[in-house]
Every structure is written in structure tokens, then in C-alpha cells.
Design goal:
By secondary structure, the protein is mainly α. About 55% of the residues lie in helices and about 0% in strands. Bound molecules: iron/sulfur cluster.
């Protein structure tokens, strides 16, 4: 374990293309983030992304991925989920944190999408943000993954790592999102979430990041990192 009270500037300037290439290689051994994995399994509609994102909130991926799969195995369309009771949804996702309010939100969303939008969640940010339990991260994932639009979902990993790199200096995920959109080209906005979720779990961890073996060390300012492995 190394203490690092003061640090020189990075050996090389932060290069987006090079950083993404190194990130892709670094996370190749690890599972895809839950929503990206589900999308590749065929659960990539905006509605399914919203539902799965609610399931994942404050819940370990190892718990939320099988919970979302259980729910979608029983019901995956707005009409099918609306036909369930919140208690039935709860029974399918019950290992997840906040499973009871999540079940009520999922049921309410399905009922609204089925009744108000004819079973298709519109690719419209204000509409998605108006759904119960849906915040900026889930809305950006729904529109990015589900609609193919350029949106930048910022979760705790993206927020922490982008600020450690020193390419943004923002106190909240919302401010990090706006700052990163200035730094990264739109074609990178969704991918940075896909890459930094596993990178944040396995390399640039919240406590004691693995800087000494990190492939981005030469271009990272390590902002706020006082101790690392
Ligand atoms: S692990 Fe360390 S060197 Fe790598 S990105 Fe995180 S803070 Fe920077």
C-alpha cells in the first residue's frame, strides 16, 4: 500500500482514444454491466432498460442481474408487467435493496406506458424522467441503450473516476455529466458508462484503487487519491 501526499503531473496528457483503448482491454475479463448484459440478451427496449435500471439501484450486480432476469422471464412488456400485482413483482426481485418501493414504481410505470403510450415508452427525456423512481442516470441509459441516442449516464463509478483522472472537476454526478459532455465526443458517452462500471469495481475502486498496476496511470492526475495499491 502506498501513500502519495503530493504528485507530479501525469507523464502524458489524457488522450481519449488511447484511454478508451486501454479501458476496453482492462475490463475485457470482467462481466458487462447489468443493463448492457441484459440488452445483449434481448432486453434492450427503453421500457426494459428503465425497469432493469430501477432493479439495479443500490443493489449489487450479482443480485440485480438475476432479479431482472427472473422478472423478464415472467413478464417483459408493459402490458404483461401491468397485469402482475406489485406483490408479484416484489416476489421476483425481493433480494434487491428497496424491493417494495421498486416493485410499486415498476408496476406504475408499466401501467402508464401500457395505458398512456400504447405499450411503447417514448424516446423523450422529459417523459422518461417523469416516471416514478427514474433519475438522470436511468433516463440516460434508457435513451442511450434503448433508443440509440447520445446520452451520458453518470453513476458513482463514472463520477469518481473522471474526477480522479482530472479531466473534470465536479462535485456531483449531474455536474460531472455536464462537464464530461464537453470533454468527450458523443459517440463515447454511452461507452464510458459501459467501461467505467467494471473498471470502477475491479481497478479504480472507491477505496485503495489499484494505481500501481493501472493501465491509465501515466495519464491520470490521481486527484484525491491519497492511498492506493
Ligand atoms: S486506478 Fe489510480 S491511476 Fe488508475 S485511473 Fe484510478 S486513480 Fe487513476
Amino acid at each position: 500500500m502506498n501513500a502519495r501526499p503530493s504528485r507530479p503531473p501525469p507523464a502524458v496528457a489524457f488522450d481519449v482514444d488511447e484511454a478508451f483503448a486501454r479501458l476496453r482491454e482492462a475490463v475485457a475479463p470482467y462481466p458487462l454491466p447489468v443493463l448492457f448484459a441484459l440488452a445483449r440478451e434481448g432486453h434492450g427496449s427503453p421500457f426494459e432498460v428503465v425497469v432493469a435500471c430501477i432493479v439495479t439501484i443500490r443493489t449489487l450486480e450479482e443480485v440485480s442481474l438475476p432479479a431482472a432476469r427472473r422478472l423478464f422471464a415472467v413478464a417483459r412488456t408493459p402490458a404483461a408487467i401491468a397485469a402482475l400485482t406489485p406483490a408479484a413483482i416484489d416476489a421476483l426481485i425481493d433480494p434487491c435493496t428497496f424491493h417494495e418501493p421498486k416493485s410499486r414504481s415498476i408496476h406504475a410505470i408499466a401501467t402508464r406506458v401500457d395505458g398512456e403510450f400504447g405499450g411503447e415508452l417514448p424516446c423523450d427525456l422529459d417523459t422518461v424522467l417523469s416516471l416514478p423512481g427514474v433519475g438522470p442516470k436511468c433516463a440516460a441509459l434508457a435513451l442511450g441503450l434503448g433508443c440509440g441516442e447520445a446520452h451520458l449516464p453518470v453513476d458513482i463509478h463514472v463520477h469518481r473516476i473522471a474526477n480522479r483522472w482530472g479531466i473534470v472537476a465536479a462535485k456531483t454526478p449531474e455536474k460531472t455529466q455536464r462537464a464530461l459532455m464537453e470533454v468527450l465526443p458523443p459517440e463515447r458517452w454511452l461507452e464510458i458508462n459501459e467501461l467505467l462500471v467494471p473498471f470502477g469495481k475491479h481497478v479504480c475502486t472507491g477505496a485503495l484503487p489499484r494505481c500501481s498496476t493501472c493501465p491509465l496511470l501515466a495519464m491520470c492526475q490521481q486527484v484525491g487519491v491519497t492511498r492506493h495499491r
